[in-house]
Amino acid sequence: MNPLKIGKHTIKHPIIQGGMGLGISWDRLAGNVSKHGGLGVISAVGTGYYENKKYAKKLVEGRPLSEKDFYNKDALFKIFENARKICGDAPLGVNILYAINDYGRVVRDACEAGADIIITGAGLPTDMPEFTKDFPDVALVPIVSTDRAFKVIAKRWEKRYKRLPDAVIVEGPLSGGHQGFKYEDCFKEENQLENLIPKVREEVDKWDKNIPVIAAGGIWDREDILKFLSLGAQGVQMGTRFALTYECDASDEFKQTLLNAKKEDIILMKSPVGYPARGIRTPLIEKVEKREGPIIKCISNCVQPCNRGEEARKVGYCIADRLADAYEGNKDLGLYFSGAYAYKADRLMHVEELIKELIGE
Asked: What is the C-alpha separation between 296 and 320, in angstroms, rounded?
């Protein structure tokens, strides 16, 4: 396996750890992945919860969590600082959802915090370079699900900003969390990752043959990695495998929920973000299906498509509150996102061991 070059940054192994929020990939996980030669990716979601809600001051004091405290800049800086203590100057990334409110502000914060690479999905980030123009060394990587989506981004970036993405992540419908397809389209053969990669590679080559294409969604082992490299990808992104490590920042209950999942427990569900999402059927999902879910207060106003809780009320749960519950290990009310193959796991691993297994050492 060859190193992966993204912009001015070289990653020793062509493996990117997917950004997972809330609190699944923060300093411990991202720092250790980068330390051992992959690209560790910090999630910018819900940083107010970092260090036992230390940065969500109003919540700690017993009052409702304010919008500014759900995402907290000081906490993001602290997460980067602590990750750097682990990985030194190795490349370190951040994942920032395009669907969040104040996307541009969070991107600028991440640049100031020391991100080398910014990854964005959950929408088409057509204005992403607008917020990084003062940070020319920061590499920009959009997540797409089709060749058409890459074409839209490339066309807009070249016209407005005279630049192209430094890499592109192609995410198929077996990934954990939000998908880039409508529910029914997730099951179509043409939308499976092995059929997407060659099409996106062909489109990318029309713009710049040196732009790496990175495969994501349902990649589990070394055999999968080699398969997608042979199809034209230059690297892979993996989320669930890294969530099942000792260094993962999530609670022990979160990891145990993934370990306990059976194949039939992993389903596609509706989300207030506006995309179907893959996760584990838990007591929360059963309550939501019966319209007996917890009260939706929208104290975070976290994602734009939710319209201050309007979509959450239609779907039956608040994504911010329920991801926070999962991070804290609440098995009844937590929302547990997972890739399609989490059921294959039978134990936790250390990041170093996992990476060595994936690269064949």
From this structure: 10
Strand (E) positions, 78-138? 92-95, 117-120
Contacts of 163 (CB under 8 A, 6+ apart): 129, 157
Q: Are 169 and 142 in contact (CB under 8 A)?
A: yes
Q: How confident is the model at residue 61 (pLDDT cuts 50, 70, 90)?
A: low
How far apart (Å, rounded) are the C-alpha atoms in residues 78 and 172?
32
| Phi and psi, residue 118, nearest 5° | -110, 125
The dihedral built from the CA positions of residue 35, 40, 44 and 50, taken in this order, carries a sign that is: negative
Please tell me the predicted confidence (pLDDT) of residue 149: 96
Tokens of 71: 């995402």
Q: Could you report the per-residue pLDDT of 239-258, keeping only the tens digit for each?
A: 999 999 999 999 999 999 99
End-to-end distance of the chain based on CA atoms, in angstroms? 11
Of 134, 195, 128, the closest CA to residue 167 belongs to 128
Query: In this structure, are residues 283 and 331 in contact, taking their beta carbons and an 8 Å threshold?
Result: yes
For residue 22, whether the previous peptide bond is cis, meaning omega lies within 30 degrees of 0, is yes
Give yes or no for a contact between 116 and 95, defined as CB atoms under 8 angstroms apart.
Answer: no
DSSP β-ladder status, 177-178 and 277-280: antiparallel
Q: Which residues contact 353 (CB under 8 A, 6 or more apart)?
A: none
Buried b (16+ CB within 10 A) or exposed e, 185-211: ebeeeebbbeebbebbbebbeebeeeb
Strand partners, 267: 279
Under the banding of pLDDT at 50, 70 and 90, the label for residue 301 is: low
| CB of 211 closer than 8 Å to CB of 168 | yes
